[in-house]
Specification:
Glutathione S-transferase Yfyf (Class Pi), Chain A, domain 2; 8% strand; 4 strands; Glutaredoxin; 216 residues; 8 helices
């Protein structure tokens, strides 16, 4: 099999690429990276010195592809399927990419700040940083809610790049800062994402690892 994905089933950014692969039923070999295991960590760092997951290897083309949006672009161009992640229309494309960036930078990052603070050693927590992250999430929720008031998908007319980014971002953000009554459209959007077969599969495969998620 040409494609190999190096990932962890609990990692939110890995979900983004898994959703894309499952949407188009793209064949690939999964390799789970355990950064707590010396051999697994060393093998992954040899492949990806920055140590960021996921990474896609394409044996047939001799390419190693990091970064989620780049991986989805790569799949669009070299392994296309029924779902095109980035629309072909230039204006629709930049808008889809904008939402990808909003979910990665303004939902995922503050969510991960909150989660990361929970696993810091006692006495080294950052309450001010967590408060800032929660404020950023609140602002992001408001922006997303306004946009979803009259839209089904954020990638355009159909499921695409923005949804691959939104699903993991909103799923985990909702766990650390639950969507409220004022976020009805966003909650409904998250419900549509959970009902999508690709994301439902990702969640089912992650379930055995959910005990590792740090609770408040």
């Amino acid at each position: 099999m040409s494609l190999t994905l190096h990932f962890h089933p609990l990692a939110s950014f890995c979900w983004k690429v898994l959703i894309g692969l499952y949407e188009n039923e793209t064949p690939f070999t999964p390799v789970i990276v355990d950064l707590g295991d010396a051999a697994s960590r060393a093998a992954f760092l040899a492949l990806s010195p920055l140590g960021k997951m996921p990474v896609l290897q394409d044996e047939d083309r001799g390419e190693t592809v990091p970064e989620t949006i780049v991986i989805l672009d790569y799949l669009d161009h070299h392994y296309p399927g029924p779902v095109r992640f980035t629309p072909s229309d230039p204006d629709a494309a930049w808008r889809a990419r904008l939402w990808d960036r909003i979910f990665d930078l303004h939902v995922q990052e503050p969510m991960q700040k909150i989660v990361g603070d929970r696993i810091r050693p006692a006495g080294s927590q950052d309450p001010f940083g967590v408060a800032q992250a929660r404020a950023q999430l609140a602002s992001s929720y408001a922006v997303i809610e306004r946009e979803l008031a009259e839209r089904t998908w954020l990638s355009g007319a159909t499921f695409g790049l923005a949804e691959c980014a939104a699903a993991p971002a909103l799923y985990y953000a909702d766990r650390v800062q639950p969507l409220g009554a004022e976020h009805a459209a966003t909650a409904a959007y998250l419900g549509r994402l959970k009902a999508r077969a690709s994301f439902a599969r990702v969640l089912a495969e992650a379930e055995p690892y959910f005990h590792m998620f740090p609770q408040a």
